[in-house]
């Protein structure tokens, strides 16, 4: 639906341009000059010449310099002045650099409130636990513990000092039997003494 509305508005704008009924109020009043030479930002004479060249197309013109991006924002008093400057100055050679002028994209705010609004309270309990559970929360019943009776029986049959058959013999397969071994007293290793590095001999004085 939005695509259809966009195409219809574009056709209406094109028809107005062809019939000379284009509404300048739909265009912004600011231009962005790109690929500006560094001399415009550093040389006062070149800056004054650039401002004089752009001021021909408007009475009250404001300039905002962005040297890091090599761009200049030129703001006119009306869209008609901005259109005239854009047509005359686009792709113009200024200080050995081809400068392009584009219309600045204006951001239309739907709400007049300049402050940020609070976020909607959606799933905020995952970040900070609330004092009470959220609406619709239900406890999950815990499952019963799994009891391995074969393991309990094997543990009950274990006795210290006796052999334990883990797997009985079947046919030509031998059985698996564990026999306890003596637990000799573990001898702690004697820590070795750290030997200091010998100082090198002093050179003999002649």
Automatic annotation (TrEMBL):
InterPro entries: Calcipressin, Nucleotide-bd_a/b_plait_sf, RBD_domain_sf. It comes from the Eukaryota. This is Calcipressin-2. GO terms for molecular function: calcium-dependent protein serine/threonine phosphatase regulator activity; nucleic acid binding. Belongs to the RCAN family. CDD domains: RRM_RCAN_like (cd12434). One of its GO terms (cellular component) is nucleus. Residues 1-20, 163-206 are annotated as: Disordered. One of its GO terms (biological process) is calcium-mediated signaling.
């Amino acid at each position: 639906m939005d695509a259809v509305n966009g195409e219809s508005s574009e056709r209406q704008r094109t028809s107005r341009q062809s019939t000379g009924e284009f509404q300048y109020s739909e265009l912004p009043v600011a231009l962005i000059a790109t690929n500006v030479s560094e001399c415009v930002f550093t040389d006062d004479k070149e800056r004054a010449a650039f401002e004089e060249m752009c001021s021909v197309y408007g009475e009250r013109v404001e300039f905002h310099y962005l040297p890091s991006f090599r761009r200049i924002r030129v703001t006119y008093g009306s869209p008609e002045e901005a259109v005239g400057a854009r047509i005359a100055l686009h792709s113009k050679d200024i200080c050995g650099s081809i400068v392009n002028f584009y219309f600045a994209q204006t951001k239309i705010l739907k709400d007049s409130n300049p402050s940020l609004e609070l976020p909607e309270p959606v799933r905020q309990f995952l970040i900070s636990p609330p004092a009470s559970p959220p609406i619709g929360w239900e406890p999950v019943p815990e499952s019963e513990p799994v009891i391995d009776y074969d393991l309990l029986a094997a543990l009950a049959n274990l006795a210290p000092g006796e052999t334990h058959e883990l797997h009985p013999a079947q046919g030509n397969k031998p059985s698996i039997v564990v026999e306890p071994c003596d637990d000799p007293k573990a001898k702690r290793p004697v820590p070795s003494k750290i030997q200091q590095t010998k100082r090198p001999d002093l050179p003999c004085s002649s």
